[in-house]
Amino acid sequence: MNGQKANLRYLEEENQQLIKEKSILEKEMEDLRKVTDNLNRTLGVQLKEKEELSRVADGLNRTLGVQLKEKEELRSVTDGLNWTLGVILKFTTFPVNDYCPEKSECILLC
What we know:
Order of helices and strands: HH
Oligomer: single chain
Largest sheet: none
Shape: rod-shaped
Structural class: mainly alpha
Distance between the termini: 121 Å
Number of strands: 0
Mean pLDDT: 91
């Protein structure tokens, strides 16, 4: 009988230990749920920010494309003006009437 009582006491102690460990694990699981929920909220916010940044990047890329096209157009105008200036500078006095008889319509020498 003493063996059974000792065994019962041992099992009761083991049961109490398991109850404590279960309680600890349940608290840890609740903590992990909270952390997981927080991470999911953070991930949601970051995904929205990523989408917004993608839209901003797309807009910047479109703007860059427009600016590059404008740069090429300005380069073409600058090249034309430099060519015109080169022609003008070949003369001591530039014969406007020979090269630009319609002064109001003549902007570049072509």
